[in-house]
User: Which sequence fits this backbone?
């Protein structure tokens, strides 16, 4: 059985994924496999305002799912290597 | 980009997983790969009362993650085939 401490960590990450707009943000950022995504490029396709996008991005960063790097005026986001794989493998039956 | 309707469905499933006790229940039920798990066998290892376990089980059933079958006095639970795989593959980078 999953131990309580590990279950609490995983639950916090799943909570970060339990919002449709955050999943859409993640789908945009994770499809940029070789590059970062500028925060400035997100509001348009999502139909959201910048502060709303920034709120959701902060939750994904705090959960250890996205990495944030500020350069000049904008912040750039990328998926933390391994973060999604480890959650995905938690869900899949052990071989 | 993930479409809004699909994102809403996925977010609801991740929300069902965003609780440590539900993840622990799922880890017990999913490790019984060839058999169902009786609701009567869950409170002991989890250290929870039966009504609390039943509350969490209902959320997992409503989210389409667990299947419930009542036989006699007890209800028996199993993972809906493909439910976790589809969530897991959502998280993993497309090949």
Assistant:
């Amino acid at each position: 059985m999953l131990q309580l401490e590990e279950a609490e960590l995983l639950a916090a990450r799943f909570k970060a994924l339990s919002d449709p707009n955050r999943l859409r943000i993640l789908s945009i950022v994770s499809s940029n496999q070789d590059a970062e995504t500028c925060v400035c490029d997100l509001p348009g396709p999502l139909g959201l305002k910048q502060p709303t996008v920034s709120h959701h991005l902060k939750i994904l960063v705090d959960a250890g799912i996205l990495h944030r790097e500020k350069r000049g005026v904008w912040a750039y986001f990328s998926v933390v290597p391994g973060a999604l794989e480890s959650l995905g493998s938690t869900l899949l039956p052990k071989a």
Chain B touches chain A through 35 residues (CB under 8 Å). Chain B has a mean pLDDT of 90. Chain B is about 55% helix and 15% strand. Residues 42 and 48 of chain B are 8 Å apart (CA to CA).
